[in-house]
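note to self — DONT lose this again. spent like an hour looking for the file last time. sequence + predicted structure for the chain T wanted, 141 res
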Amino acid sequence: MNNMRMLGIDYGDARVGIAVSDALGITAQGLETIHHDGNDKIVLKRLEELLKMYEVDTIVVGMPINMNGTLGERVEKTKKFIHKLKCKFNNIRIESIDERLTTVFAHKTMNFLDVNKKEKKNIVDTISAVYILESYMNKSH
């Protein structure tokens, strides 16, 4: 049985955080932040490389639902992005998960780790992606 990995995505307007699971699907680790400035082509191209590198069979995208449960404009953008993923990677399972709390958790983690402000901007998306992936993995076990 070939163990496939899962990829977690925290999709943002300018930056996309990426996390990947280990081959057994037990732990998630931050991989990188893709800086795309609103150009999804850059994101899709990089994802293509990562999917090959890591033999991914599931992509989990965080759905940025507002704290009060309403769907903001970010959700529309994220849905469009998920649609592009489904078109481009039609042999991969694409899931989305409510990520309401992930950014809050990510910031807490960074405060705990005592990360300086400049670094924070660079890793908050990656940490969020880790939380997205972990909450999906916990849910599906």
